[in-house]
Write a structure and sequence with these properties.
Elements: H1 38-50, H2 53-69, H3 71-90, H4 102-105, H5 107-127, H6 129-138, H7 142-149, H8 153-164, H9 168-187, H10 193-212, H11 216-224
Helix pairs in contact: 1-9, 1-10, 2-3, 2-10, 3-5, 3-10, 5-6, 5-8, 6-9, 7-8, 9-10
């Protein structure tokens, strides 16, 4: 595994990074008793992405490029692949460029999740700004639920809504921070989006681990894919 702050390779049994001293959090199979909150999730996402800066910059670039060419068919699988890369990095395994291809292994649910979430959030946004933001906050996790629990797209939407509504305040704040970092990335001649988008996905992965935990089978897949 790798330190999520400085990227130093370390043994799985080590409790803190020998280079920068960062303690290693154990990825729980069960949800956290007390979720940490939006600021901690965003900080963890930022640390994970910047620890593997150039890989995530490339992943962000490829994501934006693919979505601009064929958004309907590609955005869902690319989003799922990027979410998988961020989940692996958060869980202590260094993400790599091949992670994007994972989304195409789950092509049907990835496309359906993308279409369904876009339709729900878009419809809610047409009503008023607040319902649109609430819908976006409640639907942060369908891609991760497909990855971790092998749910179909309808079950993933329902599960995301069911759990997220109990933490709506924290998730609305997380969404606000995510919008802020996206706007900051866009202001940097758009180039900043190459990092802002992975940070957004990584912060969502950090929130998922707190609210849902992680199945043991998923931990095995994370451990077995890449160094």
């Amino acid at each position: 595994m790798f330190c999520d702050r400085c990227g130093t390779p370390v043994a799985a049994s080590v409790e803190q990074c020998p280079r920068c001293g960062t303690p290693f959090a154990v990825v729980a199979v069960t949800p956290a008793a007390i979720p940490r909150g939006a600021v901690a999730w965003m900080a963890e996402g930022w640390n994970a992405v910047t620890a593997n800066f150039w890989i995530f910059a490339l992943l962000g670039f490829l994501y934006l490029l693919a979505c601009s060419v064929a958004p309907v068919l590609v955005q869902g699988p690319m989003a799922l692949g990027l979410q998988w890369a961020c989940l692996r990095q958060i869980a202590g395994r260094r993400a790599d460029i091949n992670d994007l291809g994972y989304g195409f292994q789950l092509f049907p649910p990835a496309v359906l999740v993308c279409l369904a979430t876009s339709l729900i959030i878009g419809t809610a946004s047409l009503l008023l700004l607040l319902p649109g933001l609430a819908a976006a906050a409640l639907l942060q996790f369908p891609y991760l639920l497909v990855i971790d629990r092998n749910l179909d797209f309808i079950e993933a939407l329902r599960e995301s809504f069911a759990v997220s509504q109990r933490h709506i305040g924290k998730l609305l704040l997380l969404l606000t921070l995510q919008i802020g970092i996206a706007l900051a990335g866009a202001l940097l001649c758009g180039v900043g989006l190459f990092i802002a988008i992975p940070v957004i996905y990584a912060s969502t992965a950090a929130a998922y681990l707190d609210l849902y935990g992680l199945r043991a089978a998923t931990k095995v897949r994370i451990t077995g894919m890449g160094a």
